[in-house]
Amino acid sequence: MGATDHTTARRDVMVIFGITGDLARVKTFHSLYRLEERGLLDCPIVGVAFEDWTKDQLAQRARESITAQEGDLDEAVFARLMDRMSYAHGDFGKPETYDGVKQAMGGAEHPLFYLEVPPNLFATVVKGVAGAGLATNARFVIEKPFGHDLASAKALAAELHSVVDESQLLRVDHYLGKVGLEEIPFLRFANTLLAPVWNRDYIDHVEISMTEAFGVDDRGHFYDPVGALRDVVVNHLMQVVVAVAMEAPDYGDRSSLGRRRTELLREIVPVDPARYVRGQYRGYRDVDGVAADSTTETFAALELRIDNPRWEGVPFFIRTGKKLRATETEVRVVFREAPSLGFGLRGEAPPTNELVVRLGPTFGVRVALAAQRVDAATPELAELDVGFAATPGESPTPYEVLFEAALAGGGMRFASQDTIDAEWAVIQRLLDAPPPVQPYEPGTWGPSAADALIDGRGGWPEPWLDG
Length: 467
Ligand SMILES: NC(=O)C1=CN([C@@H]2O[C@H](COP(=O)(O)OP(=O)(O)OC[C@H]3O[C@@H](n4cnc5c(N)ncnc54)[C@H](OP(=O)(O)O)[C@@H]3O)[C@@H](O)[C@H]2O)C=CC1
Ligand SMILES: O=C1O[C@H](COP(=O)(O)O)[C@@H](O)[C@H](O)[C@H]1O
Hints:
GO terms for molecular function: glucose-6-phosphate dehydrogenase activity; NADP binding. The active site is at residue 236. Belongs to the glucose-6-phosphate dehydrogenase family. Pathway: Carbohydrate degradation; pentose phosphate pathway; D-ribulose 5-phosphate from D-glucose 6-phosphate (oxidative stage): step 1/3. By secondary structure, this protein is α/β, with parallel strands linked by helices. The protein folds into two domains: 3-143, Rossmann fold; 176-457, Dihydrodipicolinate Reductase, domain 2 (2-Layer Sandwich), CATH 3.30.360. It is built from 14 helices and 15 strands. Strand 4 (111-115), helix 6 and strand 5 (139-142) form a beta-alpha-beta unit. Helix 2 (22-37) packs across helix 12. The longest helix is centred in the middle third of the chain and has 19 residues, at 227-245. It starts with a helix and ends in a 13-residue tail after the last helix. NADPH dihydro-nicotinamide-adenine-dinucleotide phosphate is lined by residues 18-23, 26, 49-51, 91-93, 116-119, 121, 143-145.
């Protein structure tokens, strides 16, 4: 069996570095609980962190975390989860910590190491694991961020590659675990109604909008050095662009899919700072952890172009921000205008078709067709909606999907280093020469300069909201 066979085998232990941290509290325990509930866990789980916790303390934290997300918990499911969990502690910088980890792993041969630790410790932990002789058949799931620009992303990769192979690294972008995201290529390629028109001949422009009504809240220390562009555009929203625009992979394996993703990202023209708008909501500078004179953007809007035969001339508009009017993530594909029609409608262009994929908070697809109702004077848009998950908890959460994929040995849900480099390359000019940040009022759609960006295409639409 070669190295690749070992690293794609089903995992026989999951070791979670950083189990006492915030991400574990808000996502990890809950996702593990839901996997346990669905019968999808079959290996021991070892949590590791600095604090010298007892198993009871671990159970207490797990219980609080799960109830905070789920409401009541099923005691039988919780007991099964805790039976498979243990805890080891120590400083990640010290070799003896990994001796403790090895002991807790028992005789497991195909470990999954999940690193939800501060980014400056990614390489330390991977090296510590390798130093204890535990890396040979291992896979490492690594949390974001992967650097803060192109150069630092490459430096991090070089450090990791000095101890482990790229095939062993699974980089988290939780959008790759969103159920709706993978539906986009499926919709495009599996429907003969859509596949032939999915190109510059029929599509006028694409809008990708991720608006959040909440603010930075208690995440000021994390957010202020990062900002909207690095927090969600260079990763999550770039993956949405990929899903909308990439060519179909030849095969269903990690490398074919990874190749298509990277090809598309490399075809995106580095974004021009003149087509980038930065905003900051009023009140952001009062958030704990935010500098009093911060110029970090809490809103970003930009236009990108893809230099390939399918997308030549089609702008992709991206908009995201905090403290906006509503929380909604969607992709809106706006088709070209139809010609004016002879049968009583000459001079009256019918409204343009749209296909909207809603990615959050729930998931659905909307097709807007021009329709001439008997009782209406002019054509109108008739909206055909399909809700695939009507409530946020109905489908698996992204972390359930990612953990399940990582435990099964698959890598398709994770980002490769080529992808990460290509994503940073798209926005590097914006990091080098950011335009000034513009204030906006909470509860609006952001600074008015963002409207000017898309003026020639009818402005930003009202997103598809509930009710
Ligand atoms: N929080 C979130 O919502 C999100 C976080 N992320 C990413 O996840 C990662 C973790 O974030 P988050 O959970 O917020 O971080 P926290 O600071 O809350 O948690 C860090 C964890 O690492 C442990 N740790 C830190 N230093 C050491 C050390 N020297 N030795 C042993 N253990 C150590 C801490 O242990 P102890 O508590 O015992 O000291 C704790 O368990 C980061 O990369 C972040 O970017 C990604 C998306 C969202
Ligand atoms: O990674 C992050 O994503 C969330 C948005 O995720 P979603 O699944 O709710 O769309 C964002 O709010 C956060 O700032 C960012 O760090």
